[in-house]
Write a structure and sequence with these properties.
By secondary structure, the chain is of the alpha/beta class. Helices cover 44% and strands 14% of the residues. It folds into three domains: 12-71, Orthogonal Bundle (434 Repressor (Amino-terminal Domain)); 82-180 and 314-343, Response regulator (Rossmann fold); 182-312, 3-Layer(aba) Sandwich (Rossmann fold). α10 (211-226) links the parallel β6 (201-204) and β7.
């Protein structure tokens, strides 16, 4: 009955008077009466990607504006049994490129009429508490940039919530994953540093509960061993500026001098390391010491730094993640998929590099 076309004679004054008498909010049926269209046509006009003529769209939007109508997302979710919300779970220690990821994901899901809910973890070991909040919001899917345990994966499956791991691996489980090849990236930067004559390496690594940080550390050490060079001097970092600066001081204190090269687990630490080397220790970078980072964040390219680093194709990875999750939300029976992206070397001004192989 509500899908029949209301009479065209319904005026804005009549409808507003009725709403006032009934002391209620404006509904899609009120908009349909004023626009002279069916209630289902109004619903289609507010649903991204739905088929509706330009003329009908214009009439509905004009009526909605006159009545100050705002669609009720909560009511719509009760009908469709979808929240039209996607969770993005990410650690607070994530690098500076995540605003770029969030922006791209918001754009991609916005085109589908969906919204991103951001859940920030104090550390990657705090997933359980955050998941309890995620379930309360009845999200339709999730993109997870954090380490999941088998039990947590099982909980996603039990609740029927599809998810995509973003730049993370899960050993022993086949799940939908978007990753940048950290092993290849580490091998690439170490190979080019070694080709330029660097022999003594140090590394400021990332948090011990970050799977990506530890993968980078292991891969740097493995490539040095393959090249017949000594294992890197490892110092602990925490993905922030202060630990990069502290790491630089610790490296020099333990070695009694600067090494040939310091590979930092991310760009923020590399910037802290670089500032300390140049301004506190008066070291010539890259003449006496090469410093490299990981990630390729915007700040690394600022003129004062011009950091030599490895850039991850974050925008492409975010687009792939949204496409993958979108497909999973339409068909949850789709088999696990893993898409791998490659990092590229940014030849900045903080390291001496040999030729690419």
């Amino acid at each position: 009955m509500t899908n029949s076309t209301p009479p065209l004679s319904s005026s804005i004054a009549d409808i507003k008077a009725l709403i006032g008498r009934e002391a209620r909010r404006v509904t899609s049926y009120d908009v349909a009466r004023l626009a002279g269209v069916s209630q289902s046509a109004v619903s289609r006009c507010f649903k991204p990607g739905a088929s509706v003529s330009k003329a009908t769209q214009a009439r509905v939007m004009k009526a909605a504006q006159e009545l100050d109508y705002i669609p009720n997302a909560a009511a719509r979710s009760l009908i469709t049994r979808r929240s039209n919300q996607v969770a993005l779970i990410v650690s607070n220690l994530a690098t500076l490129h995540f605003p770029e990821v969030l922006s791209e994901l918001s754009r991609q899901f916005g085109q589908r009429g969906m919204r991103i809910l951001l859940f920030a973890l104090p550390s990657e070991g705090d997933v359980d508490q955050t998941l309890a909040d995620v379930w309360q919001h009845q999200v339709d899917g999730a993109i997870v940039a954090a380490r999941l345990s088998p039990a947590q994966v099982a909980e996603f499956e039990r609740r029927g919530v599809p998810f995509v791991l973003f730049n993370r691996h899960l050993s022993g489980h086949s799940v939908n994953t978007i990753v940048c090849d950290q092993v290849e990236a580490a091998r690439l930067i170490v190979s080019r540093l070694a080709a330029a004559g660097h022999k003594r390496f140090a590394m400021i690594d990332g948090p011990h509960d970050s799977a990506i940080a530890q993968e980078r550390t292991r891969s740097v050490a493995a490539r040095l061993a393959e090249l017949g060079l000594a294992a890197p001097l490892l110092v602990a970092g925490n993905y922030d500026y202060a630990s990069g600066a502290r790491g630089m001081r610790e490296v020099v204190s333990r070695l009694g001098r600067a090494p040939d090269a310091i590979v930092c687990g991310n760009d923020v630490m590399a910037i802290g390391c670089l500032d300390t080397a140049r301004h506190e220790m008066q070291l010539d970078v890259p003449g006496a010491l090469s410093i490299t980072g990981f990630d390729g964040v915007t700040q690394a390219g600022w003129l004062s730094y011009n950091l030599t680093t490895l850039r991850q194709p974050m925008q492409s990875m975010a687009m792939a993640a949204s496409d993958m999750l979108g497909a999973l939300m339409l068909d949850k029976s789709t088999g696990p998929e893993r898409r791998v992206f490659s990092a590229s070397v940014v030849e900045g001004a903080t390291a001496r590099l040999g030729p690419a192989f």
